[in-house]
Amino acid sequence: MMDDILxxxxxxxxxxxxxxxxxxxxxxxxxxxxxxxxxHGGKLVVxxxxxxxxxxxxxxxxxxETTNLLSDIASENVVPSILIKxxxxxxxxxxxxxxxxxxGLNKPYHDNKGIVWVKNGADKRKVFDNAELAEMMTDCxxxxxxxxxVRDATVNDLDATTIKQFLxxxxxxxxEKKGLTGDAFNEASLDMICSAIAKGxxxxxxxxxxxxxxxxxxxxxxxxxxxxxxxxRWMPMMTAKCICFAGNSVGSKxxxxxxxxxxxxxxxxxxxxxxxxxxxxxxxxxxVGDEFNSMGKLEIPYTSLVEFTVNSxxxxxxxxxxxxxxxxxxxxxxxxxxxxxxNGLTIEDIKAGTSMxxxxxxxxxxxxxxxxxxxxxxITRALDEDxxxxxxxxxxAQEFVITVWxxxxxxxxxxxxxxxxxxxxxxxxxxxxxxxxTxxxxxxxxxxTxxxxxxxxxxTxxxxxxxxxxxxxxxxxxxLTNKEKDIVNFCSVPRTTKEILDRIGVSMHSKNRERYITxxxxxxYLQMTNPDNPTASNQKYKKVNIR
Length: 547
Known about the structure:
Elements (H helix, E strand, L loop, with lengths): L1 H10 L5 E4 L5 H13 L3 E5 L13 H17 L1 E2 L5 E7 L2 E8 L8 E2 L4 E5 L2 E5 L2 H10 L9 E2 L9 H11 L1 H6 L4 H6 L2 H8 L5 H7 L9 E2 H7 L12 E6 L8 E5 L2 H4 L3 H15 L2 E3 L8 E3 L3 H13 L9 E5 L3 E7 L8 H5 L8 H7 L11 H6 L5 E6 L4 E7 L13 E2 L17 H4 L7 H5 L28 H9 L6 H7 L6 H13 L3 E3 L12 E3 L4
Parallel strand pairs: 1-2, 11-15
Antiparallel strand pairs: 2-5, 3-6, 4-5, 7-8, 9-10, 11-12, 12-19, 13-14, 15-16, 16-18, 17-18, 20-21
Helix pairs in contact: 2-3, 12-13
């Protein structure tokens, strides 16, 4: 103990250690104990000048008085009251009193004036934000935001197709026994699936039994996140921001790609698909093997991106009113997830595979929709890919940041595809394209990792991985120009005719539409979002994914 205290004295005050020469103000001491309890605990050392770190030891009588005062303050001036461990450390000319405060189990704690304090480095600060208070309650298990109700939302606000996919995965063995597999499952209605799982049950009854509907009849936050048609109507900030910048600064006003807010609206499955399309559209494919035409792989392993993306969506703080933010720079990729690590987790803990989920209910159900094991192995599996990655747990900003560094040879060297302001207009697409020819011809997005992670997506290479059965391999496909390849990648999320033509810098002329859009639809690279009404005003075009 003595050695530890002396080391801390020499190091000065830090977030976990506070010095006081004497206890002169009970309220001031109570605020310190509250801050420790609401944070990660710490030690209050009495008998040291907090300005200089100079020891001013306590006499025997002062030790007794200080010990009694600390016990009284912990029980009477901290709400709810706390238990502290009090030790004495003998030093020259007297003793020090050390009060050890554990991280509290009944957060948030407050002083007898009702003020909540948390540690802020070596100092402390007041907390007034409801989201931060809710986060404290979540950490100690007194509040589960994923099980909270979504006011006024009904089952009609959920997507039947996503629910069906979820039930098919969760009750796979039950449905197999009922013969509902393959085409039979695909052709069955949601009500038929529900009745096969539990006789006489419809969708609402199944969801109620699975706790997606609360006893009071309201949908849970988890239900809206997993199955919502338009999740952001109810929870506007439960989304993601994806921007590919030119250069290495987030302050840049020039970007190469930006996912429109409207494209991110939807449930977690849709958000996941859109984010992964954003990655594959903007990161390079690199050649592997000895031959020039050998299969390409994404410069950052797809498996790692999957794990980091899913973790950011599932483990984000649901109390923080902020989106997941994903930035691609020339030298790195950053994934910002709202909320610092919960439950006292450290970066070393998560590297070792320790799992202490913040959103337990969401965590237990996400595995049936997302490529996610739910056993804490995601980070370790991502690290197995031998990537250059750093983690930052920012308690002050309340976010967890993953930074994956791009190899120098893969960093962007030209800025011909830069998009200015908030438009998606490309200045010069024919010269210095971001995507090399290998992006679509040799760069398979998913490669071998699909077999290990059980991803839904199969190979998406547009020239070598055909959409249809193996017999299509003998069929000659239209050779795409660089401009056409960029259009196809751009349409990883649905785009309007104007957005597509603006991207390649041509006018809204019918000849341009036929040349750059209609021809790609006919060749099987793009599909209409509303094929029954080709001239619909809301018509968009989406890349045909190979399943």
